Amino acid sequence: MDTVISKTVTIRERVKLQYRFEAYNLFNHVRFGGPNADPTSASFGKVDPTEQNNARLIQMALKLNF
User: Fold this and answer.
1) Contacts of 49 (CB under 8 A, 6+ apart)
2) Which residues are CB-contacts of 59 (< 8 A; sequence separation ≥ 6)?
3) Closest listed residue to residue 56, CA positions, set 31, 38, 19, 34
4) pLDDT tens per residue across all 66 residues of the chain
5) Closest CA to 26 of 4, 10, 50
6) Which segments within 1-66 are labelled E, that is strand?
7) Which phi and psi angles does 19 have, rounded to 5°?
8) Phi, then psi, of 60 in degrees rounded to 5
9) Could you give phi then psi for residue 51, rounded to 5 degrees?
10) Reduced to 3 states, what is the DSSP secondary structure of residue 6?
């Protein structure tokens, strides 16, 4: 689940400040890859856990528009 929260504040008529909070993979869910489908492989049928894992990423930003 990805989410973005932003707030824009008007400082003067033509000057605005925007605060952004962005979170990717907010709940840090693990996404496993598919099982190995090669019947000649020694790891046939095993799931590789490192294939599609993306760690939680959180970032904040301030933007000044004038």
Assistant:
1) 30, 32, 33
2) 21, 22
3) 31
4) 899 999 999 999 999 999 999 999 889 887 777 788 888 988 888 877 665 667 889 999 999 999
5) 4
6) 3-10, 16-24, 57-65
7) -110, 130
8) -125, 150
9) -70, -45
10) strand
Could you identify the residue written with the tokens 């907010």?
26
Given the structure tokens 């894992």, which residue do they identify? Answer: 53
How is residue 35 written in tokens? 């099982």
Nearest to 36 by CA among 51, 48, 49: 48
CB neighbourhood size of 42 (10 A): 7
- DSSP assignment, residue 34? P
- C-alpha to C-alpha distance for 1 and 25, rounded to whole angstroms: 5
